[in-house]
Amino acid sequence: MTLLDTPIEKTMIPAPAADAAPARAEKVNLVGLTREDMAAALLQAGIPDRAVKMRVGQLWHWIYYRGVRSFDEMTSISKELRRDLADRFEVKRGEVVECQLSTDGTRKWLLRYGPNAEIETVHIPEEDRGALCVSSQVGCTLNCRFCHTGTMPWVRNLSPAEIVDQMMIARDTIGEWPSPSGTRMISNIVMMGMGEPLYNYDSVAKALRIIMDEEGISLSKRRITLSTSGVVPMIERVGRELGVGLAISLHAVRNDIRDLIVPLNRKYPIEQLLQACRDYPTAANSRRITFEYVMLKGINDSVADAKELVRLISGIPAKVNLIPFNPWPGSPYECSDQKTIDAFVEVVNRAGYSSPVRTPRGRDIMAACGQLKSASQKVRASEKVVPAA
Ligand code: SAH
Ligand code: SF4
Questions:
Q1: Residues enclosing ligand 1, CB less than 6 A?
Q2: How far apart are CA 176 and CA 105, in angstroms?
Q3: 28, 99, 166, 331: which could join 121 in a potential S-S bond, CB 3.0 to 4.6 Å?
Q4: pLDDT per residue over 177-224, tens digit each?
């Protein structure tokens, strides 16, 4: 098999929908419901029509502004109603399997969302702020050759609840309730964890809308960045519907090289990807597009590559984020050496683009870009344990 035979995607056996309706006796998790969904659930539970909007407002405040998990603590709601709500609903958190702290302060959670669905979330603190790197899928259908997640089987998409939950758990650990109006240690979200967010757009969009809601977690769209390996047909919707910052995993300037390292390029080549970037409404939120570029020794790191990069992105309000390759067990590449990275940076800077080199964070706990991988395996239907009736 030649490298070009690497499949673009793993086979997608339809998994049970992550947000499928629960069995009758199961309580409905209020986390991850949009305001409209929550209103519908309350109506169905017998809350009078005229009171629904007010009740949604109260619940929203307690769940997303104050971070409470039990109805008992929701003291603006009568005791009787709290008891009724607790009978039918819950404010659920995922299971924290492990929480590791790096010597540089980076924290990584291994979270479980049911059997065989484990993902990782990473917090990267700075002096007076910090970014939360959030996952969108258990595994990834794509097979980028430098990415540890890409070596996992794709298990399933995360539901809106499971995406929001990563933020809730991080805030529980870091102690960031109620939503701070000033300094926040989780001040930014980057959709750069496990998975391709634009292959799970609906759930990602719902989750980000919940996180942006001003009466709850209230994180502005300016503080959210979505990274994609280049799902061209979805990029316009991200700009129009969410208005968050866009990061593109470009990583190569020639289609033959990108075809090898980001196989999705065979479906959506560089020219199409850059056209989608030119059409992205950056002017509306005055943000530049970030082009991520992993430095792979001898593959994509020459001065000629840097010059071509500058030519390709000319006219796009952009910055280039150079990522030193983070190795993982068995990874087929090496990181470019410092001199090569410096020469690359020089070309990009001289062309007027800011090109910070991303400092690897949390390498000692395998929490750096592209090192995330959980033990989840896809379970075939024939292997599923059927509970006794
Ligand atoms: N699936 C999305 C987001 C997750 S990856 C995407 O591909 O954009 C976040 C960033 O880390 C991407 O730019 C990805 O290409 C990069 N990355 C993956 N593996 C890496 C590695 N081993 N070293 C450095 N960066 C890596
Ligand atoms: Fe998936 Fe992104 Fe890794 Fe590629 S780099 S395999 S798209 S998570």
A1: 144, 146-147, 192, 196, 227-229, 249, 292, 294, 323, 325-326, 369-370
A2: 16
A3: 166
A4: 999 999 999 999 999 999 999 999 999 999 999 999 999 999 999 999
For 54-70, b where at least 16 C-beta lie within 10 A, e where not — what string?
A: ebbeebbbbbbbebbbe
For 33, 227, 228, the CA distances from 201, given in Å and listed in that order, are 16, 12, 11
Query: How many whole angstroms from its chain centre is CA 359?
Result: 20
Atom of ligand 2 nearest to the CA of 249: 5
Q: Which one of 118, 120, 162, 176 is the catalytic residue?
A: 120
Average pLDDT over residues 230-247: 96
Where does the pLDDT of residue 379 fall: very low under 50, low under 70, confident under 90, or very high at 90 and above?
Answer: low
pLDDT of residue 389: 36
Amino acid at 273: L
Q: In what order do the strands lie in the sheet with 107-112?
A: 95-101, 107-112, 118-125, 130-133, 188-191, 224-228, 245-249, 289-295, 318-324
Q: In the CATH scheme, what is the code of domain 95-365? A: 3.20.20.70
Strands 130-133 vs 137-138: parallel, antiparallel or unpaired: unpaired
Tokens of 162: 């499971």
Dihedral through CA 363, CA 368, CA 371, CA 373, nearest 10? 100
Please work out whether the CB of residue 263 comes within 6 Å of at least one atom of ligand 2: no
Q: How high is the pLDDT of residue 7?
A: 78
35 vs 41: CA distance, rounded Å: 10
Domains of the chain by residue range: 27-90, 95-365
Class of domain 27-90: mainly alpha
Q: How confident is the model at residue 10 (pLDDT cuts 50, 70, 90)?
A: confident
Domains 27-90 and 95-365 share a fold: no
The number of the ligand 1 atom at minimal distance from the alpha carbon of 147 is 19
Selecting among 147, 162, 369, 383, the annotated active-site residue is 369
Instruction: Please compute the mean of the pLDDT values over residues 27-41 and round it to a whole number.
Output: 98
Looking at the CA of 294, which ligand is closest?
Answer: 1
Structure token digits, residue 340: 């090569």
Among 148, 183, 208, CA closest to 331: 148
Residue 195 Cα: closest atom of ligand 1: 1
